[in-house]
Amino acid sequence: MKILKKIMIGAGVLVVCAVSINAVQQDSSGGSEASVKSSRQPEKSVANNYRIVALPVPKNLDFAGENVPMDDPDVYERMDRELLVNTYWQSNALLLMKRASKFFPIIEPILKEEGVPDDLKYLAVIESGLTQAVSPARAVGFWQLLEGTGKDYGLEINDNVDERYNIEKATRAAAQYLKKAKERFGSWTLAAASYNAGQYGIDKQLERQKVDDYYDLLLGEETGRYIFRLLALKEIMNHPKKYGFVFDKEDLYQPIPTFEVKVDTVVKDFPDFASQFGINYKTLKIHNPWLRDDHLNNASRKTYFIKIPEKGYYPALD
């Protein structure tokens, strides 16, 4: 039986081959050849129009005004890696640019008010992709703040309200953390690294390795890549055309104007509250993600400011 099966399978293969050969040969006018060429055309088109090229690594780079030692071969290679990874992950980089157009105008003035260099905004980019992310360690929001850290810097966190999701308040808390780290290390680069590894973790490695500069430290994979990811995204997002990204201003996401409603009482039902302003609950939550439930207990009668989008930006408002 096994021999018979093998014979039958072999015969089947021969039949398929014969049919394939006949199909190609039967049109002497070249129709079959044209068909074969047509089937190959997409592959040829991709090969002609899509190139994966080595990228020139900038010779002069800085982070928050602090020089990057690009003459160090290790620094050069690590920078090259992050430029390649972030340039050729095109969909992600383009989404980051679209979101940055919407959220950087919120983040930038707060960093300026707090006396934090503008480059530190890229921490929010690599921490969360400018989304209200939640990590496996339960770090939350644009700035990926842990509950303890958030409370240390004055954020309210409970079942009803979690201000780590409030972009303005979380940005201010992150800025205060970074200023404190800068005071400790004397460097914005080390302060940024400590945002990933913790201030104690960076301090321990500086002491252990007897150096005082981030670029001289041997660190784990994540923190070792951290500053280079910041530098790469800063470079790409500031020079998109140089790295092959083509878009118009209209392609970028735009901030939606809002006004604030003062609330210092209990809110029993946010869907009903939203409907008073001609919007639905989903739209209310998009602009106020720090409201974590469909009601607000507010036993202390604390004052909150809830954002409402201006008319004309959502269908429900028309």
From TrEMBL:
Residues 1-23 form the signal peptide. Residues 106-213 form the Transglycosylase SLT domain. The keyword Signal applies. Keywords: Signal. The keyword Signal applies. InterPro entries: Lysozyme-like_dom_sf, Transglycosylase_SLT_dom_1. It comes from the Bacteria. Belongs to the transglycosylase Slt family. This is Murein transglycosylase.
